[in-house]
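Table S2 (continued). Query chain:
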Amino acid sequence: MTKKIIEQTQPPYWRPIGYYEATRALSKIDEYIDLLKLLTNFINPDDKKIIQDKYPEYQTLDHKNLSRIRQRVTQLSLPMIILFNRINLSPLYEYGGIEKEYNQDKNRWERIHKKTTKNLFIGIFDTPSITEPRQFEFLMEHLEVARGGYSYIKSLSKRRWKNPIWWLAQILRIPISIIEFAGINTQNEATSKMVYWIIQVLMGIVLALLIVRLGLPLKTIFNL
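Corresponding output:
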């Protein structure tokens, strides 16, 4: 059976990802990876001990704890989908291959190629199951891609903190952040015009404060 990731069709989310959001995303992805490794046991004893030390509640992998891990993995399915979509990675893939199907009209068995669209995180214990080595590696590969994306965003955000222009941009972006927090898409034309006007006003205020800070009289500036 072949697997192929389906290209993401939805546009990237319009609110930028910050340092703390990237940190939380990495924490969720790491937890998901660790729990899958414990559940499938596709790890060496040393790595297994490191993970169990990280999660003391799973020191013994009895039936009760394995059920708890499965439940937690299922709970993390939707957050994983959201995290993938957040950086424009598709969690969908095509699963297909050659199968035999009986053709009643022709009264014979025929080989047909069937394709099924599946989600990386929904029904991971169904066929193809995550307990199969190839499916486990397939999922891990894409989790590492997402992890790399969020790691890059986190390091980039950290470097931006040292740039004073970035801080100025964040101050000017406050009205946009408030509008986005209210659930209004700033890509809308009418909203964009309003945001642009607010930014102009804010830039005027910042400029005026800067002029005062430099000791220049506002009256002189306005009379120019």
